[in-house]
Amino acid sequence: MYRPKVTITEEGRSGSVHYEEAGHRISGWWEFAGGDAIALVNMGSAQEWRNGQAWAVERRAEVLRFIADEVVRQKATGCRADIDEEGGWITIRR
Questions:
Q1: From CA 24, how far away is CA 39, in angstroms rounded?
Q2: What does pTM read for this prediction?
Q3: Which of 11, 51, 5, 49 is nearest to 31 (CA)?
Q4: DSSP H helical segments within 1-94, as ranges?
């Protein structure tokens, strides 16, 4: 069984998000947002995954949910994550 890992880096008001699993890696980015949205995370569109992350396409919803849950757990306790699966957007909200 794989043990996925999410690493979040901060570079001022933005940074990167990396998902690693069984020797594979998906990289995205995040930035602070406004209003009730604390941060926006983008992990790539469904089309980008079909072209570059074919190993994870069938499990896209599961992987995005794992990333969203890890972002909340690591950086935004008490918040929730809304996912736009087609676009690869994760919005962290209060």
A1: 25
A2: 0.96
A3: 11
A4: 46-52, 60-75
First to last CA, the chain: 33
Using one digit for the tens of pLDDT, what is the confidence trace for 36-72? 999 999 999 999 999 999 999 999 999 999 999 999 9
Tokens 């909200």, residue located: 93
- Measure the CA dihedral 78/49/29/40, to 10°: -40
80-92 burial, b for 16+ CB within 10 Å, e for fewer? ebebeeeebbbbb
- Checking 19-23 for CB contacts under 8 A at 24+ apart, the result is 19/43, 19/63, 19/66, 19/67, 21/56, 21/63
> Distance between CA atoms of 29 and 58, rounded to whole angstroms?
22
Q: Which amino acid is at 6?
A: V
Query: Are 69 and 62 in contact, with CB atoms under 8 Å apart?
Result: no
